[in-house]
Structures
1.
Amino acid sequence: MLEVLLFPRKRSAPRASEQMAQHKTVLATGVFDILHPGHIRFLEESKKQGGPGARLIVVVARDKTVRDRKRYGPTLPELDRVQIVSALKPVDRALLGHEHVDFLGVLQELRPDIVCVGYDQNDIKRRVAKLVVDQNLPIRVVQIAKFGRNGLNSSSGVKKRIAKNWPRTRAASR
Amino acid sequence: MLEVLLFPRKRSAPRASEQMAQHKTVLATGVFDILHPGHIRFLEESKKQGGPGARLIVVVARDKTVRDRKRYGPTLPELDRVQIVSALKPVDRALLGHEHVDFLGVLQELRPDIVCVGYDQNDIKRRVAKLVVDQNLPIRVVQIAKFGRNGLNSSSGVKKRIAKNWPRTRAASR
């Protein structure tokens, strides 16, 4: 499995649509720390944006990137997180990002037709949209709406619940 | 997605090997609360036991079953857990178990050729093996070895780590 996990630092992937007529490459990114159905719906919806035959590539955030941004690290180490994401049905390829976030480098290397961001990824949306304009890149940026009705549709919500119920003296209420 | 999640209480699935020569049906079960790479490796190894063309069915434990057995419930509700499992590449079908565990009923309904149990499922292994002998069922029971080297290869290990680091005053050490 490891060969799919490492970022191809030196080579540039051909754009899928150059090889296979209408088949689009969709790019999504995230931490994917504690997996919940919201993640899966996000990835399914992202892939749908590319239409039939689309290929979904997911860049999983490095531990260092998460620590630098949030001042606390993810629970699962990056190799675990990328293995989990690559095991999901909608995902054609999962790989770890760069430790020093480099959006332009990623776009140039993976050459997506579409970049999908989550409802809580406004910062990424703005930065990618700016690059698309500044660099005149043929990329569509799509924000995927939030799914679900309960507080467990976020990794933070799941963690809060676990912490609240630890040690296991209380049965979970649902 | 919902139609795949409910247990077919009244009808009996045909054994895959009756329909398609050598294609085996493998059955695995578990709680799958906080997903980690050990779960994925367990499911991949389980499917391998059936050889080429095998079909993997996973019965996900109900919230009530977990509460009755462990005196504390899972963090993610059963519908979330079965959605996550059904989104994993090795899994052909995921469904919720019965609230009152009924191993014989499950075996008669799903008619697996092989039942795979995890390294920590000795009780299930014993109970299924006894049923196979008592009922003279054509089922092979296989215990899959433990994977991984770190303490995060168990849902409990992951939860312990989350609780220890909550609130988020400490950066995770890896």
2.
Amino acid sequence: MSNQKSPARRALDVIPHAKQTSYPEPFASLVRGREKRRLGDAFGLSNFGVNLTRLKPGAISSVRHNHSKQDEFVYILEGSPTLVTDAGPTELQPGMCAGFKAGSGDSHHLKNETAADVWYIEVGDRSAGDQASYPDDDLAVVVTDGVHVFTRKDGSSHE
Amino acid sequence: MSNQKSPARRALDVIPHAKQTSYPEPFASLVRGREKRRLGDAFGLSNFGVNLTRLKPGAISSVRHNHSKQDEFVYILEGSPTLVTDAGPTELQPGMCAGFKAGSGDSHHLKNETAADVWYIEVGDRSAGDQASYPDDDLAVVVTDGVHVFTRKDGSSHE
């Protein structure tokens, strides 16, 4: 990444991450309207990731999931995404935030069901040995050396 | 903390942290106009802290410092603080961000030299064994079980 030594930068000047997703279809299409600027990585940070994320109309943040070891947090900057947890849907507004404690078992994601873009800050740590679970979908993941390999829950490929 | 099970909340509804600072004088007075809402803690997150922080006119974010183990990140929501690093001062605007890599040795803080409030999101992880250093001031800190004890650099008290 260029500009690593710059003490500060405009978040919008950070180029969106080139790799859109590692999800197989049909999940990849659901996040096609998601754009992540990896702000923490732009400054060489490694203990946590912090992204400026845009969800275009119709996009979701991720397949609804929970983490075993890694905490997650979102702060809404613009737009009105729907947060879905085990408790159901909640409409969020700018200035609202949500935190997802590792190991809680409560799954979450954001959906942009509006006609306007949603922008938010997301934070996640990088605790080793994390496992993500997807209660609503036939999706499982193994992460090896930072590479996400997605399968069906029986271990077979979606192809 | 009440409302830990709420899936989301307005950040401004999180009550500012009661303890203003552990700094001794004359440093405590410099952060008197600083107000931190511990958003991550409000959801029970423990791997990192994320705060909504307000700097009233004249306030600083902290004594200028660097960390040995813990990364830090800020995203400016409102106002124009001055970021001071080893490279000197930089005026920030809303939508700008900065990251401070652990172990870089480059020290930082924010100063509100304007007549308007500054609001920003700050993130820091909780890696064990962290040490903070304060190059500009006669300040040293030892953290034991989460309690910060500040001294002069020779180990004596500021009292």
